[in-house]
Amino acid sequence: MKARVTIMLKNGVLDPQGEAIRHALGTLGFSGVEGVRQGKVIELDLAATDAAAAEAEVGRMCEQLLANTVIESWRVEIL
Amino acid sequence: MKARVTIMLKNGVLDPQGEAIRHALGTLGFSGVEGVRQGKVIELDLAATDAAAAEAEVGRMCEQLLANTVIESWRVEIL
């Protein structure tokens, strides 16, 4: 079973990497880009076969390791 | 209009960051994680109102700046 975790900075947390991308896109002539936020995506191959249990387990992984929950929010999708 | 770009290393390209996550999860007692791949997600706020045109423009952004197309694949979703 595959799971995809998407981790983004919370709203209000400064995202200098996203800001740098926005500036670089403007330099390349891409106008009309009003904001950019960069985050991480982590794809997990799991041995589990129960989707609900897998989703709960991946949530624990996010809380303990994958995300910095002070400044980042996370979302799990079971694929 | 919002667009989400997901950028992953192509299959066969070594992903040491994913490997490090897999190892750390094992250390924390999460067994049953068979593989981990880490990628990037970039969320763009666009001024464009035409979804098809926006998707094509974001594709050009990926080719020119966002992804290293030698080792990374990209996917665009218009939200």
UniProtKB/TrEMBL annotation, chains A, B:
Q: Name one GO cellular component term.
A: cytoplasm
Q: Where in the cell is it found?
A: Cytoplasm
| Reaction(s) catalysed by this chain's protein | N(2)-formyl-N(1)-(5-phospho-beta-D-ribosyl)glycinamide + L-glutamine + ATP + H2O = 2-formamido-N(1)-(5-O-phospho-beta-D-ribosyl)acetamidine + L-glutamate + ADP + phosphate + H(+)
Q: Which GO terms describe its molecular function?
A: ATP binding; phosphoribosylformylglycinamidine synthase activity
GO annotation terms (biological process): 'de novo' IMP biosynthetic process
Q: In which pathway does this enzyme or protein participate?
A: Purine metabolism; IMP biosynthesis via de novo pathway; 5-amino-1-(5-phospho-D-ribosyl)imidazole from N(2)-formyl-N(1)-(5-phospho-D-ribosyl)glycinamide: step 1/2
Q: What class of enzyme is it?
A: ligase
Q: What keywords would UniProt list here?
A: ATP-binding, Cytoplasm, Ligase, Nucleotide-binding, Purine biosynthesis
Q: Which InterPro entries would you find in this protein's record?
A: PurS (IPR003850), PurS-like_sf (IPR036604)
Q: Where mainly found?
A: cytoplasm
In which domain of life is the source organism classified?
Bacteria
Any single Pfam family the record assigns to this protein: PurS
| Catalytic activity, EC | 6.3.5.3
Assigned protein family = Belongs to the PurS family.
As for what it does, the entry says: Part of the phosphoribosylformylglycinamidine synthase complex involved in the purines biosynthetic pathway. Catalyzes the ATP-dependent conversion of formylglycinamide ribonucleotide (FGAR) and glutamine to yield formylglycinamidine ribonucleotide (FGAM) and glutamate. The FGAM synthase complex is composed of three subunits. PurQ produces an ammonia molecule by converting glutamine to glutamate. PurL transfers the ammonia molecule to FGAR to form FGAM in an ATP-dependent manner.
The protein's matches in NCBIfam families, at most eight in alphabetical order, are given as:
phosphoribosylformylglycinamidine synthase subunit PurS, PRK05974.1
PANTHER family, from UniProt? Answer: PHOSPHORIBOSYLFORMYLGLYCINAMIDINE SYNTHASE SUBUNIT PURS (PTHR34696)
The UniProt subunit note reads as follows: Part of the FGAM synthase complex composed of 1 PurL, 1 PurQ and 2 PurS subunits.
Q: Which HAMAP family match?
A: PurS
Write the protein's name: Phosphoribosylformylglycinamidine synthase subunit PurS
Give me the gene this protein comes from. Answer: purS
